[in-house]
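Table S2 (text version). Query chain:
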Amino acid sequence: MERSRIVVAGASGLIGSALVRSLAADGHEVVRLVRRAPRGPREVRWDPERGSVDAAGLTGCDVVVNLAGAGIGDRRWTPEYKRLIRDSRVLGTTALAEAAAALPEPPRVFLNGSAIGFYGDTGDRVVDESAPPGDGFLPELCVEWEEAAAPVREAGVRTVFLRTGLVVARGGGAWGRLFPLFRAGLGGRLGDGRQYWSYIALHDEVAAIRHLIDAETLSGPFNLTAPEPVTNHAVTAAMGRVLRRPALFPVPAPVLRAALGELAGDVLGSQRVVPKRLTESGFRFAFPGIDEAIRSAC
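Corresponding structure-token output:
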């Protein structure tokens, strides 16, 4: 990819910070959206919950990557926090999409965050990007999140939806909480362990986003997950092997429900999601297997 001016929302998050490092290392001009007063020309002020963005700061951008949103698993899902999860994504996406669409020269591509939560609980059924949305809070959220990008898509900008799975990384997300537990010998399966986890190494997540930035003919939803989902039981075994620690402490489903409330349904749910469109586009995973993905994060 030629050197470009790339705007990133959610640049301080797990995926966003890794993406910014990768793009900057290759000489791209990365502009971060921030909620405080900008500290230089490569920061632009916005307020996703209020739906505002300093559109002038987007002038001349070639690419917009929107990864912003309150953490799904950061807190118990109270009605107030569920509203924050939604508003930080839907209102922020709407504001950014409208601002980008209104530019004299809109960006050539708009990549919007999403999640495999779009599909809901799929059990043992394998699903790809052609599957319809599921039922419940997360599927409804993902549908609204993607629909919020309509202004930029209708303006003729190539629009890509990044339906990301569980990112294997030490620095944040669900897996960031697993590593300390397993290193301490306190890891174990969650519930009965038969639920499928669709994961992706952080390295591959960033590489896939960059692949989709460069692929000039690709648009619509892409599952960012490794080719072969595995069960939580297999994840537990792999963590134990790679970290050389026993994994002897299963967490029963009732305990998870008591601790996490409504969020426990998604932890115990099964999502067997495959990246059909991504692999068909020619993308190659550096860490396709679960052991490889965990080692890449160590």
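Notes on Table S2: The first strand starts at residue 5 and ends at 9. The mean pLDDT is 91.
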